Amino acid sequence: MEAIPSDNKATTVPDGGFNFLTPEAWKALLSGYSHVVLVANSEAVDLERLRSELPETALYVFFNKVYKVLDEPFVGHSMLVARSDVMGAHIVHRREAADVLRFFGGDDFLGVVNIRVSVEENLSEKSCFEGAEARHLDLTQMLADLYPIGKIATSGFAVALWLADLQLPGNILLAGFSAKRSEKWKVFDVHDWTFEQIFLRLFARMGSISMVGGVDASPYSALAKRFPEVPPVEIAMTAAEVLSERLDNTNSQIDRLMSVTKFIRAVDNFFRRFKPKTRKQRFLDKSKG
């Protein structure tokens, strides 16, 4: 495996148990890679195919519960993004750090990047990551006036936007960013998946990033080729009209389902009151007290 040189010691900003880097230091650290591949925790990821098509100088960035896409230790240049919540990094307060970090190791592992994207989230000290090299990244200011109010950005979206702003010489590639729920893994309603998909696809069309199975697979691009005489705005308005009608039909079916499942939901809500509180809920109750 080809070594990727990096030297960021001179531009590291120490802060007690935290390890913040300047934008210049991050750029110096990541500029040696030909590709920076963000690997979503999705069944849409074909990691074996990606690795066969990309050079050994690619850096693969994984997120949180990597066992969703890895079933054996990863060999190659890699980095782990650990998302935080109010109690700190997820993998730390859920006691999953050792289970997750066992998939990485050696000189090709760049370490852990503990990130937060909202002011309610708290970072974990670098000593919490089982001896792995740990860095910290606060993206709250970058997203404050950008992301829809009332929603929280996904880790993948936040990191993709941050990387694009760094203007790295290598290519930024998003793998598995489908925003689709599968039978195995769910998507969370706290994120604005529609906004993120629009934003990322516009970024891809501008050439700032690339998406595996994203922009290139869009069926609507074929409409513009088939009807070159029709202005793009007309195609967009027609598509919006059709989608609006389909959404209205879907909402009607959802209303019907809500009525049919009313009794089931009432029973479920009743028994949920007896469910023991999670560590996070107890932590929040204690903080309020």
UniProtKB/TrEMBL annotation:
Keywords: Nucleotidyltransferase, Transferase. It comes from the Bacteria. The keyword Nucleotidyltransferase applies. One of its GO terms (molecular function) is nucleotidyltransferase activity. This is 3-deoxy-manno-octulosonate cytidylyltransferase.
